[in-house]
Amino acid sequence: MRSGPGLAIQCSINQRLPCDRRLVSPPLFHLLLMHSLTSLLVAGSSLAVALSSAAISETNHIVDELEHLLVDTDGFNDAGFQKAITPCSNYVSGSQLLGRETAAQWIRVAFHDFATADVHSGTGGIDASIGFETLRPENSGSAMNDSLGFFAPFVNAHVSMADLIALSVVMSVGTCSSPNIILPLRGGRIDATEGGLFGVPEPETDLETTLSQFSQAGFHQADAIGLTICGHSVGSVHHGGFPQVVPESAVTPTNQGGGIHFDATPDIFDVDVLNEYLDWKGQRGGPLVTTDNITVRSDLRLYLSDNNATLQGLARSSSDFTSSCVSLLTRMINTVPASAHLTDPIQPIEVKPVNVSLTVDYSGRVSFSGYIRLLSSNFKSTDLVRITWSSRSGQQAPAFAAFATLAGTGNSSIFGATFYHFFNTTVDPNEGISSYTVKILQPDGKPSSSHSVTFSMEDTTIFLSAETATRADGNIALYATALSAAFVHNVTAEISAPSPQSGTISPAILKSAVTFVQNGTRGLYSLFTAAIPTPPNLRQSTLDLIAYADRGVVYKDEFRRIASVESNWN
Ligand code: HEM
Fold first, then answer.
1. Phi, then psi, of 75 in degrees rounded to 5
2. How many helices (H) and strands (E) does the chain have?
3. Residues 82 and 418 sit within 8 Å (Cβ to Cβ)
4. Nearest atom within ligand 1 for CA of residue 224
5. Where do runs of H (alpha helix) occur along 363-462?
6. How many beta carbons lie within 10 A of that of residue 444, not counting itself?
7. Ligand 1 atom nearest to CA at 257
8. Which residues form the Plant heme peroxidase family profile domain (predicted)?
9. What is the pLDDT of residue 47?
10. What pLDDT, on the 0 to 100 scale, is given for residue 525?
11. CA 557 to chain CA centroid, nearest Å
12. How many CB atoms lie within 10 A of CB 539?
């Protein structure tokens, strides 16, 4: 499932002006006539500037998608990402007898992607170039392809592999710590189209080279030491991949990869690795400190390079260790090529529309349906969710209202429980809809702690994802409608299909365009159809529907899944 389209206007019911009024004043609405707010913003006219007040924040699909992966981790609408590391000792890519751990692999993959950054030239960093670099000896081990193979089905037009690599670090550290250590996650990373520089430190790499590699990536000596001990809080060094570090004797029937842990708690992100190293007990910092082969004692060389001063500083308290790791790991995942612009840190969304959309049936009836997800300790399963909407011209009426009913919950998110409320109602096509407001009420009908959120809704151009179907010739038929009174003369779609690319497991987003033709009417709407070849990853493929009307007005229905979850797709 995905979030609803349009603009989100966050406002409290205590504010003097109703949200809808602040959205756009009634006289302006008269001027706009049939043109929805979203469409005009898309058209980029001077009106768009007038409407872009501080009260309006545009829905960011990157943020919405990553927030879903981060927050929906259990129960109803589980995104399925966190399950791979639940429990934290889990190995999602093979037998549990291999002694491998997915949560630790994810952190290591991010380090290897990051390590070849050149911050002065603004290249490399977290850009998923690691996918093209897996055959390099410096990226030895199963972690790279295991992880990218797991991430690949989550890539889409707005979720890059590089953002998933960053997300995986946030999720590993957050899930495998108690109390949960939450790194801020930003989105917007761009996937590389080829391998980058060489230069990931290896166990054999001498100290000077190691420090210069870290330095090129923006991490000087103390940062390099800190980042390494933070990373080596979880996981193991394996004989399978690193026989020069771990002897064959580590291989047993229940540890077939021959893993030796860095510390006594390899599936918990905590200070143990540091304490065990400084106190010279337990795993004493792990195989890269203790191995018999002096050449590959890379952690020991690094830690001793300032006579353990950095590590003794971090050991003052476990909160010093935690806060340093949060800072260093956050810097690591936010080291990106100069061309990438990251979003603000993603905040869990308290009231979130999910799959909120319009459809037009054969008789021209307009259905308005979707889920409202509540996430907050302020909410209870007994709360009521009421939706009211404004007509195309901005009017409100008692009939423009519906209640949503609880459809399911998810309980184990590190951000709290989620409550999913479903609604399915009809909108009078003559009146239309331009925005809707979600109000949370207590069971007795009284407003709950001032929660009222307004979102814009585009009803001029509607992609009918539930009707997408395979044709007899193997192509896929697409259906869309446009309000006839909008005088739309050209309807196109840009298709974004994650597709295999050579040299990496990571998919590339292939873009293509298709033109629709008018094919009848549905009440007040004109029906448009098109056909496209079946994309390689249909479930991840999306489209942006674009309709052109007179005087340069453009309407859009963006980021719609081609095969919707509602359709009975085979
Ligand atoms: C001088 C720097 C470093 C060297 C030479 C190094 C080397 C290694 C080696 C050889 C392994 C064993 C991998 C395997 O057996 O599959 C390993 C594991 C690991 N490394 Fe590092 N590492 C360094 C720094 C870092 C940093 C900075 C991080 C993250 C911030 C990190 C995160 C990890 C993690 C999480 C594992 C466990 C992987 C697993 O259990 O599958 N490493 N490292």
1. 65, -140
2. 15, 20
3. no
4. 27
5. none
6. 7
7. 15
8. 159-380
9. 23
10. 98
11. 20
12. 13
User: What integer pLDDT is reported at residue 421 of this predicted model?
Assistant: 97
Ligand 1 atom 34: residue of nearest CA: 108
The answer to whether 395 and 431 are in contact (CB under 8 A) is yes
Q: What is the pLDDT of residues 139-180, one digit of tens each?
A: 998 899 999 999 999 999 999 999 999 999 999 999 999 999
Higher pLDDT, 15 or 383: 383
- Helix (H) / strand (E) element for 28: namely helix 26-32
Tell me 446's DSSP state.
P
Long-range CB contacts (within 8 A, 24+) of 501-504: 501/193, 503/131, 503/132, 503/194, 503/195, 504/128, 504/131, 504/132, 504/134, 504/148
Measured between alpha carbons, how far apart are the two ends of the chain, in Å? 17
Q: Which residues does a 6 A CB cutoff place in the pocket of ligand 1?
A: 100-101, 104-105, 107-108, 111, 141, 143, 201-203, 210, 227-228, 230-232, 234-238, 241-242, 288, 298, 302
Beta carbons of 311 and 274 less than 8 angstroms apart: yes
Domains delineated in the chain: 7-34+348-458 (2.60.40.10), 91-333 (1.10.420.10), 462-561 (2.60.40.10)
H/E segment holding residue 209: helix 207-216
For 422, the enclosing helix (H) or strand (E) is strand 418-427
Nearest to 507 by CA among 197, 1, 164: 164
Which of ligand 1's atoms lies nearest the C-alpha of 328? Answer: 30
Asked if 476 and 468 touch (Cβ cutoff 8 Å), the reply is yes
Length of the chain measured in residues: 570
Q: For the whole model, what pTM was predicted?
A: 0.91
Tokens of 436: 């809707």
Beta-carbon neighbour count of residue 389 at 10 Å?
A: 25
